[in-house]
Amino acid sequence: MLSRKALLIVAFVVAEFYVSALAIRSFGFGPVFLASIALSIIGFNVLRAGWRRTTAAPGAGSTSEIVAAVADGALRSVGAALLIVPGLISAAIGVVLLAPPLRRLVAPMVAKRVEAAAPPQAMAGADMFNMWTAGARRRNPDVVDVDVVDTTASDAGPSDSTQTNTADSARPELR
To answer: Is residue 65 part of a domain?
Structure first.
């Protein structure tokens, strides 16, 4: 027997086909097909712009600010993905999620669920995307990771035993 979630997915797909059939009957196949292609292109562009915004945004701020930004970005991504999926119902839901006033109403609820579901240790890594793109690896540019190799003991042969250690001959080699 199908689970409740599976039944909801099947019902959603049937409703998408029904609404699409009604739209094709009312407007014709050509306009509905072109509108579906246009909505998919818009969805791809919104998704790409959201990815650029996510990877370029500075990650400074409190945990609640980061969670709010992640929730807003997630709603934008879901809205864009629903525009990409062919279907008039999913496109309508996607447009609703992309509208800033409605997203501002829904984002706090999503952020509250994320904060409740995620432990504080997981929220410490909320800046995961910006760590590599915004230069977080170079937070302290004065630190240089090197291996020091002492060449005085390995290079000294039997003929070099009379040589005295001066400041120049005792310098370690950096690799």
So the answer is: yes
Pick from 47, 107, 23: nearest CA to 71: 107
Q: Kindly report, residue by residue over 76-117, the tens digit of the pLDDT.
A: 999 999 999 989 999 999 999 999 888 888 888 888 887 777
**Continuous segment of H or E residues that includes residue 11:** helix 4-27
Domain extent, residue 65, equals 4-138
This model's pTM is above 0.70: no
Residue labelled with tokens 């246009």: 38
What Å distances lie between residue 110 and 40, 117, 142, 159, CA to CA? 25, 11, 40, 76
Q: Is 89 inside a domain boundary? A: yes
Q: Which of 44, 120, 38, 31 is nearest to 80 (CA)?
A: 44
> At 171, phi and psi to the nearest 5?
-75, 130
Cβ atoms of residues 151 and 173 within 8 Å: yes
In a domain, 59, yes or no: yes
Residue 173 belongs to a domain? no
Number of independent structural domains in the chain: 1
